[in-house]
């Protein structure tokens, strides 16, 4: 049974369309009834019809990593499929009937004639612009969430290393401090003069306050540890190798211990060496905790600088180098994973430029992340800046390049060369929009030896 004008008038977008135009619409369309489980369309099908849902529901799903995920529902009294002036050509997902449907299908072949019916055309064009707006908003949000997911995964990995080091060092420090009472008791029983104590005290704290750089190779270090361990055990220590590891770390060798032995004497030598080692171990662990804490602070500051979350959402003079460096920190884990080497060539005289900082950092993220993806098996990422009335930032990779037949489409909304599930096709379109906000421009060059994007940011902006 064909749909009626009354049924079409119940559709919100068509409520004010004259009856004669709706009568023409239903006369040119084909009404069909679909059962639960039927496909309205399948992935790869040519989209050349507009669908007017009289009743029932169709679930729209898209394939991602081999599985279909829910995107939306075509609800009763709604319009879907191809709309006038839309460039949609092929289904990228499937439409599955979940409630028995009555659908009016209107072929693309009638679109030209459709334009003779003003109110009907106006209603459908408004529907298309609303759909594009909603779809763009949804995909921009998805692009941001995907970027956030990548950054948070890398950040979690980077934070895990120093936080694990802090925990490990804290446990070792706790264990080391537990030995203090016994070793302190032995120290108290020693009968040492100031002439003996002062040189040892000076030795310990000179190495702590001015810790020398240990530039030994692995082979040289092993040799020195073996020599020192043999010397210490020959002079009464029970755990010479364990002591030698800490002492060598502070550049104390056999010659140093000979001086200590000469000052202290044989009777108290073992107790003094144990005390020295305990003090140095504590210092070493505290240094490790301090360095790991600084690493965490650096990462947190990078996140703060990247998001610019302590500033108002207005343009402010900013250093593009800080944004680029913060972005590289945020993506460090992915750079390591893909074995990508980073080379930076920053100009020294780059002035500050008015920026929406968090937005421009999203541009750097999109460009650098795409460059890393293009170098799955290693490569070189080069970030260059120069100043010539405007600031120019070039991000270059040594990846597989962008095919020449699609390079003109890379800034189009939803266009992506990545497999389904790896990109929304919004990254470069969003980047271009952000650069437009800064009255700049972006250019791309690509061949089979790599791709480079050049971003121009004017110093003077309206």
Automatic annotation (TrEMBL):
It catalyses: ATP + protein L-histidine = ADP + protein N-phospho-L-histidine. GO terms for molecular function: phosphorelay sensor kinase activity. This is histidine kinase. Residues 13-114 form the Cyclic nucleotide-binding domain. It is an enzyme of class 2 (transferase). It comes from the Bacteria. SMART domains: cNMP, HATPase_c. Keywords: Phosphoprotein. It holds the Pfam family cNMP_binding. Residues 283-461 form the Histidine kinase domain. Its EC number is 2.7.13.3.
């Amino acid at each position: 049974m064909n749909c009626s004008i009354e049924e079409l008038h119940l559709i919100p977008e068509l409520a004010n369309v004259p009856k004669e135009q709706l009568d023409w619409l239903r006369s040119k369309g084909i009404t069909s009834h679909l059962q639960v489980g039927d496909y309205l369309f399948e992935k790869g099908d040519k989209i050349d019809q507009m669908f007017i849902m009289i009743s029932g529901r169709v679930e729209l799903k898209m394939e991602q990593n081999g599985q279909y995920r829910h995107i939306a529902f075509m609800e009763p009294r709604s319009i879907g499929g191809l709309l006038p002036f839309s460039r949609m050509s092929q289904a990228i997902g499937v439409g599955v009937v979940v409630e028995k449907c009555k659908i009016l299908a209107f072929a693309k072949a009638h679109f030209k004639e459709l334009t003779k019916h003003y109110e009907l055309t106006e209603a459908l064009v408004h529907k298309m612009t609303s759909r594009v707006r909603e779809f763009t908003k949804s995909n921009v949000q998805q692009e941001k969430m995907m970027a956030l997911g990548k950054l948070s995964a890398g950040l979690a990995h980077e934070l895990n290393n120093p936080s694990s080091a802090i925990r490990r060092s804290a446990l070792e420090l706790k264990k080391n401090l537990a030995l203090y009472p016994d070793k302190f008791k032995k120290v108290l029983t020693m009968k040492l003069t100031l002439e003996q104590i002062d040189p040892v005290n000076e030795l310990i704290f000179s190495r702590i306050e001015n810790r020398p750089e240990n530039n030994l190779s692995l082979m040289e270090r092993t040799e020195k540890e073996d020599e020192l361990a043999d010397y210490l055990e020959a002079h009464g220590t029970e755990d010479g190798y364990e002591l030698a590891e800490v002492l060598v770390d502070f550049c104390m060798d056999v010659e140093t211990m000979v001086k200590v032995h000469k000052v202290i004497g044989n009777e108290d030598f073992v107790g003094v060496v144990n005390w020295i080692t305990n003090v140095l171990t504590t210092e070493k662990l505290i240094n490790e905790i301090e360095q790991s804490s600084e690493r965490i602070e650096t990462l947190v500051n990078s996140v703060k600088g990247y998001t610019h979350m302590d500033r108002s959402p207005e343009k402010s003079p900013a250093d593009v180098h800080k944004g680029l460096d913060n972005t590289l920190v945020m993506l460090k884990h992915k750079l390591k994973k893909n074995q990508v080497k980073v080379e930076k060539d920053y100009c020294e005289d780059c002035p500050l430029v008015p920026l929406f900082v968090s937005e421009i950092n999203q541009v750097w993220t999109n460009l650098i992340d795409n460059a890393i993806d293009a170098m799955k098996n290693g490569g070189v990422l080069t970030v260059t800046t120069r100043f010539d009335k405007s600031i120019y930032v070039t991000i270059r990779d040594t990846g597989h390049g962008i095919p020449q037949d699609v390079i003109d489409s890379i800034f189009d909304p939803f266009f992506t060369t990545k497999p389904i599930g790896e990109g929304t096709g919004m990254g470069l379109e969003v980047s271009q929009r952000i650069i437009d906000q800064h009255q700049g421009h972006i250019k791309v060059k690509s061949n089979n030896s790599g791709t480079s994007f050049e971003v121009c940011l004017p110093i003077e902006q309206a």
